[in-house]
Amino acid sequence: MKTDPIPANDYTRSRVPDHATIGGFRIAVVVFGIGVTLPIFYIGSEISLALGLRQATLALFGGCAIVGLMMIVTSIIGARTRLSTYMIIQFSFGRGLVRFLVNPLLAVTYVGYFAATGDIFGGAIREAIDAFYGITVPKALCAFFGCVAMSLTAMYGFRFIERFSSLAVPLLVLFMLYVVYLVLQRIELQDLWTARGSGDMSVGLAISTVIGANILMAVSGPDLTRYARSGREGVKSVTGLAAGYPLIMLASGIPTLAFAETDIMKIMVIVGVALPALFILVFSTWTTNTVNLYSAVLTLAASFRRFSDKQLATMAGALGTLGAVLGIMDVFLPFVLVLGIATTPIAGVYIADSFLLSRSAYRLEHLSARPSVGYCALFAWIAGTGTAAAANQGLLTLTTVPAADGMITAFLLHTVLARWVFRKKR
To answer: Is 9 exposed, middle or buried (0-12, 13-18, 19+ CB in 10 A)?
Structure first.
């Protein structure tokens, strides 16, 4: 069967044309593939150990449901506008503010995820080489070569990622089910279900951690759903996160509770599937980290038009590789909590602008007429971030989830301020 060639133009600065769109469930496969990665396994393991399987299930599905609701909205925006997140936010935040503040922050976030994933990847490869061959290889060296390879594939854009995911995801699902099956041959599910956690984390904090770990998938939903044929197809893509991610994290949490071990490769050695696990984890991490870097390139492309996509991928990849080599995973969990605080209000602003103010009337030829700095968006973002930070410190409570508090605050404040300014101008 003939397939379309991977386009040299990945529409980083333009609208995706009709002929380049695909179905929503094909995008959902990419979304799911992004979640089958080492950091998500790690978070699922930590939450399961802290809460026990029963409460962890509630926290994982609850956190992903919240992110899924957000992603439904942002995915519709992406499908309707056919623009990347970083082109969309220019209409509300202004080209100048986006170029010099918002996009650099988001780019650092994506590169940070790339580095954290590369760091864990390096550790997993080192453990595997030591287990199979008795050879001790520095983790930094494994992380370096892994990140370099992932950087190269990010240069080929969305079409490459989509095709790679369509091959890898079915294998990932079957393998995870098989690992859980092997674990349940050794310990009864009822015993795992009733086992208590360590109590090191509350359910609310666990939900916030899940949201923080996955929030960028919702905030940057348009990066993928701009390829959807319609808003309805964009909504279908959310199933990859809302249903898939909790199952991914539970698939790591069950073996962790059974063996009191959070290192995924050590667990695979225990159940006797280390070699196939190594290949599966390599492919899954490759997919996820390619998307992390791809999103960083989309972010930078909207701000730095003088550089080609390949040049931006090279620079971002080099920075992320350095972070992986230096061991950024040591601060990963605090990092994802900060993400939920700082990035979620951005989504609140552009959701309000798209659905209530501009009503998705985003045409690139009209962008130059917009103000360079969207002060209403800026104030709403600052207030949303401050609200989320205060909620995270326990100083106030709206929804019990700081990231959601920040998004709601930014959404409401941007709507009120923008309409007030509009009336003043009239």
So the answer is: exposed
Q: Which residue shows structure tokens 């992390």?
A: 292
Contacts of 188 (CB under 8 A, 6+ apart): none
Residue 194 host element (H or E): helix 189-194
Q: 229-274, pLDDT tens digit by residue? A: 999 999 999 999 999 999 989 988 898 888 888 777 778 778 888 7
Residue 402: which CATH number? 1.10.4160.10
In tens, the pLDDT along 301-360 reads: 877 878 887 888 889 999 889 888 887 766 665 766 676 678 889 989 999 998 888 765
Alpha-carbon distance 187 to 172, whole Å?
23
Whether 154 is covered by a domain: the verdict is yes
Establish if 228 belongs to a structural domain: yes
Based on DSSP, count helices (H) and strands (E) in the chain, helices before strands.
20, 0
Residue 304, SS3?
coil
CA atoms within 13 A on the CB side of 417: 19
How many domains would you assign to the chain? 1
Contact 108, 370 (CB under 8 A): no
The answer to the question of residue 11 being in a domain is no
**Structural domain boundaries enclosing 416:** 20-425
Element (H, E) at 285: helix 274-303
Task: List C-alpha distances in Å: 64 to 57, 124, 212, 233.
Answer: 11, 26, 10, 20
Rounded CA-CA distance 397/363 in Å is: 38
pTM tops 0.90: no
Is residue 409, in this structure, part of any structural domain at all?
yes
Q: 3-class SS at 260?
A: coil
**DSSP reduced 3-state for 270:** helix
